[in-house]
Amino acid sequence: MTRAATLYGAKTQTETLRPGPLRPANIIRSKFPTYKNGSNGIVIKLADGPEIPPLKEIVAKETADLLDRRQRLSVRELAMKFEKGLNTATLLSNEVKWRQVALLERDILLKNLKSVLESLRGRVTGKTKDEIEESISMVEILAVQLSKREAELLQQKEEVTKLAKSLKQASEDAKRIVEEERANAHTEIESAKDAVQRVQQAVQEHEKMCQSTGKQDMDELKKEVREARRIKMLHQPSKAMDLENEIRILRKTFAEKSTDCVNLLKELELHKRLKENSTPSFDLEGLQCLGSVLCIVALSGTHMDLSNISIQWFRIHPKESNKEIISGATRPVYALEPHDVGRYLQAEIDVGGEIAVAKTAGPVDPDAGLVDYVETLVRKPETEFNVVVLQLNGIEQPKESVHVLNVGRLRMRLTKGKSVVAKEFYSSSMQLCGVRGGGEAASQAIFWQPRNDLSLVLAFETARERNTAIMLARRFAIDCNIILAGPGDKTPW
């Protein structure tokens, strides 16, 4: 919006036309108002435009922004920023020039205004003259402020010129650094190309060497593959099963040959006895190896009832003549146990006051592979066996319930579910041996007396498990300086 004020002016259109005082100039501003000469000697004030921040603040802001980002910019970006700053400084310098021109124009306007007011002062009198003089003094104040503003602009021009020079120098330095970095990059690229060439040459030489030695390596690899296949075939389940079958057949053949030898030895012994006396002769029937049962049979050709005849079994050491009585073994049937391995077994039958003797042809043989199996179990802290309690303190027990017998390093424990039937550490009062009273399951049963007031007869699933449990428990007891044996046994195994 424009506002026009006459030198003589009137207050309003409704008031009487008379000379009035001039309006005071607005000198409390951040910049000077813009004027231009109108027709009939009227000075027109143009509307204020948008305020522009001071030139010093713009320069300081640009410089701070450049310095803040300098560390984060690459060399090329830094050069571009310096060029941009140089362009900004050039624009600011041009703006200062334009402001100087505007100040010169305003100075000319003020001089023209002052000359007009002085010419009017000579033509008027009275109160109007005083107002004109007051306006002339205000114009002089404006002239002084313009001169100060001009001095500030000159100082800003010098600062902008210095900044432009420094930015120009920095731009040149940045360009020089860019060129140096470009040269270094070219040098590194060339060196990398040379390195790649050398690597390629080395790879080609290595390929040539590999081709020359490839046949030899291939032959060695084929040999390794054949060896691996051979080892794999050896470890296949079918091969293992074939080996097991062969071992089983060999064992069966060996048992048959052993039986034949025992029978021949028994016939020779029988002939000797028949020549020496007329006492009825008896023999032991069954395999003479651990896990089998020996049975007394009459050789007279007639059936003889041995239930009412006094019988006693003995162990005889191969190198000694003394006999060791087997306490409780008074039945015609006796199941061999680990204590009998390596010894002769002899049964004495009292027939009408005369003693008949039946003796094994040789020492009792061990069960094949049982010793190695027990040595494997010794490495475990505890081994479990499923058993059935046949007798408890001599009283028959129902055979439906299954118990678990744990043979450990320090103790033996019999449990049924969560309830504990017996649990005792190895001690001198503990007794363990095979069942000596005969019966159908004699080869699978053991007699165990954990303490003096408790004795049990336990049946295992197989004779091998029964002998394993006896050997394992005796092995752990020996480690505790305890010898586990049956009732009446005194000789350590």
What's the β-strand tally?
Answer: 18
Using the alpha-carbon principal axes, give the shape.
elongated
Please report which band the strand proportion falls in: under 5%, 5-15%, 15-25%, 25-35%, 35-45% or over 45%: 15-25%
- Ranges where pLDDT stays below 50 over 5 or more residues in a row are 1-32, 39-44
Strand-and-helix sequence, N→C?
A: EEEHHHHEEEEEEEHEEEEEEEEH
Give the gist of this structure.
Residues 55-97 form the Stomatal closure-related actin-binding protein actin-binding domain. The chain has 493 residues and is of the alpha+beta class.
Describe the 3D structure.
By secondary structure, this protein is α+β, with helices and mostly antiparallel strands. The protein has 3 domains: 3-193, Helix Hairpins (Orthogonal Bundle), CATH 1.10.287; 263-359, Immunoglobulin-like; 370-479, PH-domain like, CATH 2.30.29. The chain contains 6 helices and 18 strands. The protein has helices at 55-69, 75-121, 127-234, 237-276, 370-378, 463-479, and strands at residues 3-5, 35-37, 43-45, 282-285, 293-298, 310-316, 323-325, 333-335, 344-351, 354-359, 382-392, 395-396, 403-408, 411-416, 419-425, 431-434, 445-451, 454-460. Strands 11, 12, 13, 14, 15, 16, 17 and 18 form an 8-stranded antiparallel β-sheet that branches. A 4-stranded antiparallel β-sheet has the order 7-6-9-10, with no helix packed on it. A hairpin with a 7-residue loop joins strand 4 (282-285) and strand 5. Helix 2 (75-121) packs antiparallel against helix 3. It is elongated and about 185 Å long. The chain starts with a strand and ends in a 14-residue tail after the last helix. Residues 282-379 form the Stomatal closure-related actin-binding protein Ig domain. Residues 101-268 form the Stomatal closure-related actin-binding protein coiled-coil domain. This is Stomatal closure-related actin-binding protein coiled-coil domain-containing protein.
